[in-house]
Amino acid sequence: MHGAFEGRLVHYVAPDRKRPGARGRFADWVGERPVAQLLLFVGLAGIGALLWTALATNLARLGLTPGFAFLGHAANFEIGEAPIAYAAGDSYGRAILAGLANTVLVSAAGCLLATILGVLLGVARLSDNPLLSGTVAGFIEIVRNTPLLLQLFFWNATLHALPGPRQAFAPLPGVKLSNRGLAFPWFSDDGSSPAVAGATLALLALVGLGLALRRRRRGPAPQGGAATAVGLALLGPAFVAALAGAPLALELPQLAGFNIRGGLTLTPEFAALLIGLTVNASAGIAETVRGGILSVPRGQWEAARAVGLPPMKVLRLVVLPQALRVIVPVLASSWLSLTKNSSLAVAIGFPDLVSILNTTANVTGQSLETITLMMGLYLTLSLLVSVTGNAWNERRLRREGR
Amino acid sequence: MTFQTARHILAAGAFALGLGAASLPAAHAGPTLDAIKARGLIKVGVGTSPGFFAPDSSGKWQGFFVDFGRALAVTVFDDPNKVEFTNSSPQQRLPALQSGEFDILLSGVTQTINRAFKLGFHFGPVVFYDGQGLLVKKSLGVTKAADLDGATIGIQSGTTGELNIADFFRKTKKKFTPVVIEETKEFHKALESGRVDALTQDASDLAIARTQLAKPDDFVLLPERLSKEPLVPAVRAGDDRWLEIVNWTVYATIQAEEFGITQANVDEFLKSEDPGIKRFLGVDKSLGEAIGLDPAFAYKIVKAVGNYGEIFDRNIGPKTKVGFERGYNQLWTKGGLIYSPPFR
Predict the structure, then answer these.
(1) Mean pLDDT score of chain B, rounded to an integer?
(2) Is pLDDT larger for residue B192 or for residue A252?
């Protein structure tokens, strides 16, 4: 696990077998038993060709035309929720994009929350307080030893058991919790979206700038000059966009007809999926964190205490940085599973990528194309997650080496 | 119509592999019929909706569609038990049929032009005329579909209902929020828990679903129908002979009812002097010999499962728990739409 993330992919050649010259390289490439290798290759290619021919003839017999032209055709189904605008009659491409956006949203939020919760649980598991560590241990065992699908059904059923929209709880003014979801005030939708986007961007740029300045003040090496420049460059246009849009109006969720309308609603399906994925992954992450902390030699704890550091600082400044060496590579694989597990969304009715692609396949009959898309998109997502994990790991290693 | 849990990726993968591998030896005449004869068994994809298709307490499949499957086994093998029924969800069933997992779907598939041309299916005669309905909570006070503006509506994925409801709301320029659920139990639970205001699905399915809810009287099936849902047997394109066997097996049950031939009196009709009935029951063997089927196939079907009306009454008729009236599914001679072409 460790090496997989620390090292880069290399072509493995036994060093003492290397033969000189072009002929030698060819011999290395072909290997020890060229005839057997060739036969195996021809055999595999033959099987591949046979399957391909059968596929082509059978598709022709069924009258199916392979291709991705259907992506531009109108999709006549409705999608319950999506971060991007979609309505029945938009293209299949846009519908799939909406599904992808849902998957990305729930996975990203899940990874973030699961990491936070997992670290907290992992640390609590090591607590000297037997009540705390025992409770956490029990929780982790329950979560790790029951199927995720069952957990999703559990969370979904729990959220559906909330009162209906007419009897919604209002824990805070303007916030309504019912079996239709958690509705809270949000900017009204009419023409203010560029303003919302602009304001968000401006806020992000400000936070980024603040962080960079803080680091410059603390750190010895003046890093992050480029980031500061980008932040400053973004700030101007972001403010302009914020001012150019319609004036921001906060909209309160209100009961209208059957549903609570206005504001922003977090649906029970999204919440159940997010909670389910977060809780499920956090149990694994907690164990990883615990293992990582335990891998730090006792002497480090004792030395840190000896110089008079309070317990939380011992953990934060001495132990966790060393534990991360073990934790980060495994953490990335927890994120990977979470991302892929999000496809269980179909079972509880959240319109994720798989759900939309299944419907698309069902309506258009382009099953092969949709499976190809599904595999391609999940592969891309997974690669992005591992690239993120790797980048974090390398950055950490670089800093450690500094 | 109805279905099972999430194994879509497997089903889809099986489809890809199936297209590639399962039907490698593509015989010229009729690959499906050849495979059925070699196997000695017809593989039928069904759903689970008591009345239409459900295993009884002894595990034997019973129901309206199931009886047509048995009738097919009589036509092909002269044995109503040489047929295997497997439950398949609406999302999985079409790829499963395409890939050769089933020889025929008797799972309440709606006949549509898209499925005929784009999905490569052929369809047998309509065995049940249905329409899309809405099942709502009585306390909402809704009387027609248009009252549901702004409502949250539960939809089962893989059904024509998913498209119909979107069309309906676009046409009427009203809004709704869909919750698309694959699993049948979760689908019904969403209505009971109040997560959705209404469920939409083939009306016959909803009527059956209503009887299975904890408090059926709290819910009402709106009288309005949003669509035409002609439910038909579906087969893969490319095997005309198999399709004709399906067609004429269904027609035999309809023609028998038209003649007034029932499971109980079919033997008396063997003595009939009516040349049409003689041809139909195979007393006059010339027809059967000409078409290459057992001349007495219609006789054997009626003897084994009864005529169309008997199949209807036994499984879903007014005296059953499901309690459907014949309605459109009455014989054409009695004002319905059920009609058989002539047997000659």
Answers:
(1) 87
(2) B192
Q: How far apart are CA A309 and CA A316, in angstroms?
A: 10
We find that the CATH architecture of domain B31-128+232-334 is 3-Layer(aba) Sandwich (3.40)
CA–CA dist A23, A32 (Å, integer): 14
Q: Which residue of A has its CA nearest to B25?
A: A54
Q: How close A387 comes to chain B (CA, Å)?
A: 26
Q: Are β-strands B61-62 and B177-181 bridged in parallel, bridged antiparallel, or unpaired?
A: unpaired
Residues composing chain A: 402
Query: Complex ipTM above 0.85?
Result: no
Lowest mean pLDDT among A149-163, A316-330, B18-32, B102-116: B18-32
Q: Would the CB atoms of A354 and B8 count as touching at under 8 Å?
A: yes
Which of A358, A360, A366, A369 would you mutate first to test chain B, the one with the most B CBs within 10 A?
Answer: A358
pLDDT band at A195; cut points 50, 70, 90: low
List, as ranges, residues 265-324 from A with C-beta within 8 Å of B.
268-269
Q: Which of B6, B203, B200 is nearest to B91 (CA)?
A: B6
Using a CB-CB cut-off of 8 Å, the residues of chain A touching B162 are 77-78, 359
Question: What is the reported pLDDT for A14?
Answer: 53
C-alpha distances (whole Å) from B142 to each of A166, A180, A241, B138, B227 are: 16, 19, 45, 7, 19
Q: Decide: pTM greater than 0.80.
A: no
Q: pLDDT of A62-116, one tens digit each?
A: 667 788 888 999 998 889 888 888 988 899 999 999 999 999 999 999 999 999 9
Residues B29 and A65: their CA atoms lie apart, in Å, by 23
pLDDT of amino acid A161: 87
Q: Say if CB B188 and CB B212 are below 8 A apart.
A: yes
**Which is it for strands A181-184 and A264-266: parallel, antiparallel or unpaired?**
antiparallel
Q: What distance in Å separates residue B22's CA from the closest CA in chain A?
A: 9
Say if the Cβ atoms of A62 and B98 lie within 8 Å: yes
**Residues whose CB falls within 8 Å of the CB of residue A11, separated by 6 or more in sequence, listed in order:** none
Q: Which residues contact A80 (CB under 8 A, 6 or more apart)?
A: A267, A269, A349, A350, A351, B177, B178, B179, B180
Classify A85 in phi/psi space as left (phi over 0), alpha (psi -120 to 50) or beta: beta
Closest C-alpha to B102, from B61, B161, B42: B42
Q: How far apart are alpha carbons A55 and B215 in whole angstroms?
A: 50
Interchain CB contacts (distance < 8 Å): A and B:
159
Query: How near does any CA of chain A get to the CA of B238, in Å?
Result: 6
Determine whether domain B131-228 maps to CATH 3.40.190.10: yes
For A256, which residue in chain B has the nearest alpha carbon? B150
| A369 touching chain B per CB within 8 A | no
Which segments of chain B belong to CATH 3.40.190.10? 31-128+232-334, 131-228
| Residue-wise pLDDT tens digits, B206-228 | 988 898 888 988 999 998 899 99
